[in-house]
């Protein structure tokens, strides 16, 4: 039974316990009234506390209300995200090696250096040089529902520790979705090698990570990975679309500390950003930009902002979500094979 159904069932049970039954009504006519002793009264304390616990907000909710400011994002800033959504859309296309796909052509001048993946066991990815943005770009494909292994990766929601060979100095208390961790590890070495090559050739001082859906989760891990494995003179920026939760509270805090330029874009009623659930111990890091409609974006302060103007508040459960919103449109751009 899902937690929401459980809570409804418990609430109904509490109401039923409080309601008089027909037997109660009949017996009031001739029932004796006797005082109840202190010991019996005290024995009911656990039940009262249980009822209060069901109604109370969780500590996570309380923490996030303190910094849950929501501010509108201006038109110029919204427009500045156009290249990133096309970088994300291009990951689903076969023309990235020659930069010839439809989404590719919307970001002219980009020079691909390395590509990889098969879209099944390993998500498609590419690394290249973006002259107009003066940045190395690393982009990862999201989940293609027709590819079984991709779906299985998303379904594997167990926590696991990060490999300190890839993430030096990260404590064992930092836990992430083990499927996302393994997907990232399968491309990490090749991505780092390509990034280092471009930095050496171009004198680059900025790396931008981009991804959609599962690709957003991999991009988030890549952002931390590159931050820990590149010189401190190289800045890290990340932009993800429809990204699910990746790790626990300790991971979210570490991301906020290490990757300060992160835009986690969520769209309308997309339910993917609310999974895996917070009740499993997953937490989003900061940086959410929530799209309410075309041209109307909100900057959502804090981690997992519960305002209804942000994803976690707008989509309280997957039943109230809309999977089509996961694909877009993101300011007119659909992410997936439609952009190829």
From TrEMBL:
GO terms for biological process, alphabetical: lipid metabolic process
Hydrolase listed as a keyword: no
SUPFAM superfamilies per the UniProt record, alphabetical: alpha/beta-Hydrolases
Reactions catalysed according to its record: a monoacylglycerol + H2O = glycerol + a fatty acid + H(+); a diacylglycerol + H2O = a monoacylglycerol + a fatty acid + H(+)
Pfam families named among the record's database cross-references: Lipase_3
Alphabetical list of PANTHER family matching this protein: ALPHA/BETA-HYDROLASES SUPERFAMILY PROTEIN (PTHR45856), FUNGAL LIPASE-LIKE DOMAIN-CONTAINING PROTEIN (PTHR45856:SF25)
Record protein name field: Fungal lipase-type domain-containing protein
Species of the source: Rhizoctonia solani
